[in-house]
Specification:
Distance between the termini: 15 Å
Bound molecules: phosphoenolpyruvate
Strand order of the largest sheet: 1-2-3-4-5-6-7-8
Radius of gyration: 17 Å
CATH class: Alpha Beta
CATH superfamily: Aldolase class I
Helix content: 40-55%
Number of strands: 8
Number of helices: 11
Largest sheet: 8 strands, parallel, barrel
Oligomer: single chain
CATH architecture: Alpha-Beta Barrel
CATH topology: TIM Barrel
Length: about 260
């Protein structure tokens, strides 16, 4: 099955009204150069309206970097899935390792976090927003050979939570923590093996869903390594951090996705 590639730009806590405008201008000016690629931008939530106004009516989509598992109420600082709908979000990121680390600091265990991510996943699906679930092993887990265990644990939990078919409305992003922001990307072969592992696990439940779900790779993707990663059969695009803050770099990655 041919899956449409997706390139997602996670701006993290970067940007200002002025710099966002410049970045959006730069990407939009070149948007014709990556047809047939889904592209989505994830600004800090305070800039959602600015991004919505610029991207509305274009081929680019947008979303936030996190959401609450709850719908409304006394959850200071949180943002709910219905609120994302108010701002036209098509996607939402969840489970990013930077969020995990912050939560871990306040004492939550990784398994508990996986269950919270599954609840956020359900909350997004309920509002028709596509969850992009980040999954990846830490440097320690990588060294201890625990990649498979860590990856499949979350895949299993989200299947248990919402059923396997829900994955056809979702996106998975393999993000090895040791590759994020380090300049040390996983090799295409390593990433391909982990993507295959996820797809095979899903296929045990439902072959058609396994074949259709988009699985992105994230971790130090740049213009110069994007093509080799995206040409792997089970890598359906990328989740891009640092390189999404520069229009030309980000566009080069989108173009790489368009040309494989
Ligand atoms: C990320 O934050 O999801 C990410 C992949 O970052 P970077 O591309 O900078 O490694």
């Amino acid at each position: 099955m041919v899956r449409k590639p997706l390139v997602a730009g996670n701006w993290k806590m970067n940007g200002s009204s002025a710099s966002n405008e410049k970045l959006l201008d730069g990407i939009l000016a070149q948007a014709d150069s990556f047809p047939a690629v889904d592209v989505a931008l994830f600004p800090p939530a305070v800039y959602l309206q600015q991004v919505q106004q610029r991207l509305q009516g274009t081929t680019l989509a947008w979303g936030t970097q996190n959401l609450s598992q709850f719908r409304q109420g006394a959850y200071t600082g949180e943002i709910s899935a219905p609120m994302l709908n108010d701002f036209g979000c098509k996607y939402v990121l969840m489970g990013h390792s930077e969020r995990r680390c912050l939560y871990a600091e306040i004492g939550l265990d990784q398994l508990v976090l996986d269950y919270i991510i599954a609840e956020k996943y359900g909350a997004a699906l309920k509002e028709g927003i596509t969850p992009i679930v980040c999954i990846g092993e830490s440097p320690e887990e990588h060294e201890q050979g625990k990649t498979e265990e860590v990856i499949l644990r979350l895949v299993d939990i989200i299947i248990e939570h919402s059923g396997v078919k829900a994955l056809s409305q979702a996106v998975l992003a393999y993000e090895p923590v040791w590759a994020i922001g380090t300049g040390k990307s996983a090799t295409p072969e390593w990433a391909q093996d982990v993507h295959t592992l996820m797809r095979e696990r899903i296929a045990k439940h439902d072959q058609a869903t396994a074949e259709s779900v988009q699985i992105l790779y994230g971790g130090s993707v740049k213009g110069d390594n994007a093509s080799s990663l995206f040409s792997m059969p089970d890598i359906d695009g990328g989740l891009i951090g640092g390189a999404s803050l520069d229009a030309d770099n980000f566009v080069a990655i989108c173009q790489a996705a368009a040309s494989v």
